[in-house]
Design brief:
By secondary structure, the protein is of the alpha/beta class. The protein is 49% helix and 12% strand. Strands 2-3-1-4-5 form a five-stranded parallel beta sheet, with helices on both faces.
């Protein structure tokens, strides 16, 4: 029997690198998925005129993202198979640490572990697009990517940078590297 660490897999990396598209492909293939907290928070804050936005108050945004990601994970029903997270707890904690200087280990204290293999989408200028909910430029995306990659390594995870290729090939690679789903 597996524990949550064995079946909860993080997709992280550069903003605009294809995480959400990859998550949709994994869902299409029948896997459980959890959407990115940040996009949901930005949509809510913009709808109500809130200020917990990464370009207005990064610390407030990251606190909300950490709380939402924690709640997302706690609300999951026990199930067989892989559960893929578009960002989540660790990415939110990295953002909060960056915004406030709080130690990452302190922010993650008490959080359950994830699968040791983390899949990172690299910077990909050809598909990166700023929009109403992603206002930062590619250069900030690159800085974020390097913070995340370093943080995952420091935390003892094994980040695998996905190639810049089709979504289907990325999904195939993820599933191949994970092997059979836990039971």
């Amino acid at each position: 029997m597996s524990d949550r660490r064995d079946q909860h897999v993080i997709l992280s990396g550069c903003s605009g690198g294809g995480k959400t598209t990859l998550l949709a492909e994994l869902a299409r293939r029948g896997h459980a998925t959890v959407p990115e907290p940040g996009r949901r928070i930005v949509a809510e804050e913009m709808a109500c005129g809130g200020t917990a936005l990464p370009w207005t108050d990064l610390a407030a945004f990251a606190r909300r993202a950490l709380a939402l990601a924690t709640a997302d994970r706690a609300a999951l029903e026990p199930r067989k198979g892989w559960v893929f997270f578009d960002r989540g707890v660790i990415d939110a904690a990295v953002a909060l640490s960056h915004a406030t200087g709080q130690p990452l280990a302190t922010l993650l204290q008490g959080q359950p572990l994830f699968h040791p293999r983390v899949f990172l989408v690299p910077p990909w200028r050809e598909i990166f697009e700023a929009d109403a909910e992603r206002r930062h430029d590619m250069e900030e995306g690159l800085r974020e990517y390097h913070r995340l990659k370093a943080a995952y390594r420091r935390l003892g995870y094994d980040p695998l940078v996905l190639p810049r290729t089709s979504t289907a090939m990325r999904a195939d690679l993820v599933l191949d590297r994970l092997g059979p789903p836990p039971v």
